[in-house]
């Protein structure tokens, strides 16, 4: 006959179940927590990758905008240069015409009444031609008295002169020209140099 205080088999099973169930719940909660942390890590990694891609795309857009802006600027500069210097060859060809008119005026006898009307006509033609080319940016270089500038002048000779500072343009043999600041033709000039010091070698 069993003792009344001795638990029955059913009671033992129930107690065992009660002890096991909390442990199982803890294991489930820990598993769920681990799974949630892994999911958070995955989401954070995906967010970081998305942010990196957005930044990369933003940089690509900025680069494309900068390149487009540079292309527009270059196109505008090229167009402006083309506009300014489209007449460069034509203007260069006109220089020989201007030179011939100038030489004709220099050689003409201004005291000869018979050719004075012709001289006046050539002078008017010369003035009209110079005004016309000036409207398109052609500028004459007549550097007499200026300091020699190798970027604009071509020295044909040098001569001692007590009346001119050394390296000064004494004479222009052929005038130079610029087109919108670009040299079309250098001026051909004679440049002054300091007189040689006289040294008396006699005893």
From TrEMBL:
<feature type="coiled-coil region">
    <location>
        <begin position="26"/>
        <end position="74"/>
    </location>
</feature>
<keyword id="KW-0346">Stress response</keyword>
<dbReference type="InterPro" id="IPR000740">
    <property type="entry name" value="GrpE"/>
</dbReference>
<dbReference type="GO" id="GO:0051087">
    <property type="term" value="F:protein-folding chaperone binding"/>
</dbReference>
<dbReference type="GO" id="GO:0006457">
    <property type="term" value="P:protein folding"/>
</dbReference>
<comment type="similarity">
    <text>Belongs to the GrpE family.</text>
</comment>
<dbReference type="InterPro" id="IPR009012">
    <property type="entry name" value="GrpE_head"/>
</dbReference>
<keyword id="KW-0143">Chaperone</keyword>
<dbReference type="GO" id="GO:0005829">
    <property type="term" value="C:cytosol"/>
</dbReference>
<dbReference type="GO" id="GO:0000774">
    <property type="term" value="F:adenyl-nucleotide exchange factor activity"/>
</dbReference>
<dbReference type="InterPro" id="IPR013805">
    <property type="entry name" value="GrpE_CC"/>
</dbReference>
<dbReference type="Pfam" id="PF01025">
    <property type="entry name" value="GrpE"/>
</dbReference>
<comment type="subunit">
    <text>Homodimer.</text>
</comment>
<dbReference type="GO" id="GO:0042803">
    <property type="term" value="F:protein homodimerization activity"/>
</dbReference>
<protein>
    <recommendedName>
        <fullName>Protein GrpE</fullName>
    </recommendedName>
</protein>
<keyword id="KW-0175">Coiled coil</keyword>
<comment type="function">
    <text>Participates actively in the response to hyperosmotic and heat shock by preventing the aggregation of stress-denatured proteins, in association with DnaK and GrpE. It is the nucleotide exchange factor for DnaK and may function as a thermosensor. Unfolded proteins bind initially to DnaJ; upon interaction with the DnaJ-bound protein, DnaK hydrolyzes its bound ATP, resulting in the formation of a stable complex. GrpE releases ADP from DnaK; ATP binding to DnaK triggers the release of the substrate protein, thus completing the reaction cycle.</text>
</comment>
<keyword id="KW-0963">Cytoplasm</keyword>
<dbReference type="GO" id="GO:0051082">
    <property type="term" value="F:unfolded protein binding"/>
</dbReference>
């Amino acid at each position: 006959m069993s003792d009344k205080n001795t638990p029955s088999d059913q009671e033992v099973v129930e107690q065992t179940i009660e002890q096991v169930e909390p442990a199982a719940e803890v294991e489930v909660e820990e598993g769920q927590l681990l799974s949630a942390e892994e999911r958070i890590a995955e989401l954070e990694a995906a967010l970081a990758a998305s942010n990196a891609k957005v930044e990369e795309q933003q940089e690509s857009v900025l680069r494309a905008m900068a390149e487009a802006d540079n292309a527009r600027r270059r196109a505008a500069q090229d167009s402006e240069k083309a506009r300014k210097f489209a007449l460069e060859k034509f203007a260069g060809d006109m220089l020989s015409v201007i030179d011939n008119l100038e030489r004709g005026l220099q050689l003409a006898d201004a005291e000869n009444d018979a050719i004075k009307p012709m001289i006046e006509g050539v002078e008017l033609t010369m003035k009209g031609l110079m005004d016309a080319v000036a409207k398109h940016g052609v500028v004459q270089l007549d550097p007499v008295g200026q300091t020699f500038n190798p970027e604009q002048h071509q020295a044909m000779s040098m001569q001692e002169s007590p009346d001119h500072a050394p390296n000064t343009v004494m004479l222009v043999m052929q005038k130079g020209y610029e087109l919108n600041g670009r040299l079309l033709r250098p001026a051909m000039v004679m440049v002054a140099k300091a007189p040689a010091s006289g040294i008396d070698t006699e005893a």
